[in-house]
Specification:
Elements (H helix, E strand, L loop, with lengths): L2 E6 L6 H16 L3 E6 L23 H11 L1 E5 H6 L11 E4 L1 H9 L3 E5 L1
Length: about 120
């Protein structure tokens, strides 16, 4: 099985980049690709309930739907340091979201047969 690791650093501060990362991740899941989407920087907020639901970008799929597709068929990870800087703890994140650090990201990104993208 093919694997894709994506790191999204953009949130509401760069809506097109953010939406593109979630769109690619959700499309890859729907295509049968093993997906690991990492939320870093301002995208960290989308691991918290209700945050993706307020994101609006004209002509784009709802971010909450894309996020939920990734949660249903892939892995959604919130960066440990990004969470800490924003005061987001394990009790704040959606069910299925894991909080992990750079070591695990590096392991996933360098695994054989993995394609890694950063948005």
């Amino acid at each position: 099985m093919r694997s894709l690791v994506l790191k999204v650093t953009a949130g509401a501060d760069a809506p097109e980049r953010c939406s593109q990362a979630f769109t690619v991740a959700a499309l890859a899941v729907a295509s049968g690709v093993r997906v690991s989407l990492w939320l870093t920087g301002e995208s960290a907020w989308f691991a918290v309930a209700g945050r993706a639901e307020t994101f609006v970008l004209p002509e784009a799929a709802p971010l909450a739907d894309l996020r939920d597709a990734v949660l249903a068929g892939g892995t959604l990870t919130l960066c440990t340091q990004c969470a800490a800087r924003r005061g987001i703890g394990p009790d704040d994140v959606l069910p299925g979201v894991r909080i992990a650090g750079a070591q695990l990201f590096l392991e996933e990104a360098l695994a054989d047969g993995v394609q890694a993208l950063v948005y």
